[in-house]
Amino acid sequence: MPAPATPHTRLRHAAPTLLLLLTALATTLACRHLPPCHTTFPWDSLIILRDMAPRPPQPCQHQQEPFPFPDTLLHNSHPQQAAATARHILDNLFATLSSQSTPHHWDDQARHRLLNNLHRHSHQLQQCLTPNGTLSQGQGPRNRTLTINKYFRRIHNFLHTHNHSACAWDHVRLEVRASFQRLHNLTRTMCS
Predict the structure, then answer these.
(1) Sign of the CA dihedral 181, 100, 70, 147?
(2) Angle made by CA atoms 23, 89, 179, in degrees to the nearest 5
(3) What is the model's pLDDT at position 152?
(4) Which of the four, 110, 137, 147, 167, has the lowest number of CB atoms within 10 Å?
């Protein structure tokens, strides 16, 4: 028959669990105290996007959505999952809009303002993640990252297939605009 557990033994076994709970609580609270600019970030970015990317000189036909967004990514209630999803979307938006093949009629100064805004917001979201920059184990499926990567790969393939034309970029402009609206929803999840 095993000896009864002493308070010291119980404390030693409870310490790792307590540490994990405190870490999760601290990162959750970090998401709730984001700077106020996070609530206006998507709307400010929409204004900069409008200034940066006017409609192309020739009319484009937008008949179908060439790369549907996986809306399941928006259905999560955990602030860290929302932060990780938002940050990954921001990083991919940054990579896409950093391309040297953007249309000539886009305002380069506004594009740099938007890129700075994306980078700053992504950096601030880092507060909501664990020290290694990811969700704690068990807090979200790895396929979220893969799904976002696949979505943006379709965007890049679309641009390539259409030779980075002004109309192809106009499709992307509309998709970026929709992404800012999605980021607004994720921000609300993080702050709830």
Answers:
(1) negative
(2) 125
(3) 94
(4) 137
- Which stretches of the chain score pLDDT less than 70? 1-39, 62-65, 76-77, 128, 130-142, 189-192
Q: What is the number of residues in the chain?
A: 192
Determine the Cα–Cα distance for residues 64 and 171; give it in Å rounded to an integer. Answer: 10
How many Å apart are CA 41 and CA 122, to the nearest integer? 11
- Rounded to the nearest 5 degrees, what angle is found at the Cα of 17, between the Cα atoms of 13 and 18? 105
Both tokens assigned to 67: 């790369």
Quote the CA–CA distance of 73 and 62 in Å, as a whole number.
24
pLDDT tens digits along 127-148 = 767 654 444 444 455 678 888 9
